[in-house]
Input
Amino acid sequence: MEETLGATAATIHGTLSKPDGKTARQETLLSQLNSFLSADYVSDWAYYGFWFVFWLFMPYVVLGGIVIMALYDAVTCKGNRKPVGPVLITGCDSGFGKGLALALSELGWNVYATCMTTDGVQYLAKNGKVTALRMDVTKEEDVRAVMAKVDAAHPKEGLYALVNNAGVDRFGTTDWCDVEHYRWHMEINFFGHVRMVKEALPLLKRAARHNDYHSSRILNITSFSGLLPGFFMKSAYGASKHAAESWSNSLRMELRHFGIQVCQVNPVWHRTEIAHSQRDHLVRIYESLSGDLQADYGKEYFLKLADAAYSGRQRHTWEPENVVKALVSAVTAERHRPQRVVGMDATFYMVPVMMLPRRIINMIYDRWALAAAIPAGALSKGAPTQV
Output
């Protein structure tokens, strides 16, 4: 067996293409150009020159692209699918997951909704035509048990759609939070998604083969934080969502040949249970810190941030029904869209801002973060000079 594997590896290695002389020369020239552009001063001038030319011509490219995409959407719009198979949704105790489960069940879809709590399961069982199940996305045995139930109930048609909605969000700076805080976010917001997809793939492939004209789908709710370069007080949440966003892009390319479509849904702040406890959470963090850390930041700083965490979520959030509508469309629409950004501020402010050079983006967000509050032990009370 080992000899066969060794021979196979040698055969593959021998068939791998090797660069010819022309390709090698091209690589050398490109390497020399890269070294030149990386030199001091040259890199700065190249950077400014590139962005000058970019913004000189980009408006025409963007305008043409918008016209083409609008025409494409108008021509290819095909309406919504009728129920073609079961849909499995995680994180249905509250918020988007619960709303989506109820909305799809009203449309006649066969919905499996997983919840962390018994209360969540009981509510869905009483208020909708939903199969509600207890499941923790961080526990392998829970995930396998749920998939086994879906598999047993649908041995031929498999699973039409998996909606990875389960997620957590807690504010806090790196200085305040321990490693477990980061691990907790990653375990649920990223590894939970991966775990669900790994277990669901055989059922999703089966559904794609069973429905000749309907590809199966994976929806990953990665939040707009998965697109932002980073956000004040949300390093753990942002890191987990960036991981999920990047992985989702890879997953889309890996599964397209199996008839499985992958969609990222990126909502900004909407009114859900995940947003209600941020103020109390920050107060608990402050009370658990050492005396030295409390002195570094000061109680006034914490109170301002706690108030901002609460009032900001009250003033600058949208109705969750808008996200539920986007999710229903992502599950049922005939024409698949690989990404859906939900929220007026994201669509008309944040997305355009992210087209700016990164240094300008950093300057905008750095100054916003400084304006939020200043720690008692800050070395500088003014705006940062590095951009």
Q: What stands out?
A: The chain is about 60% helix and 10% strand.
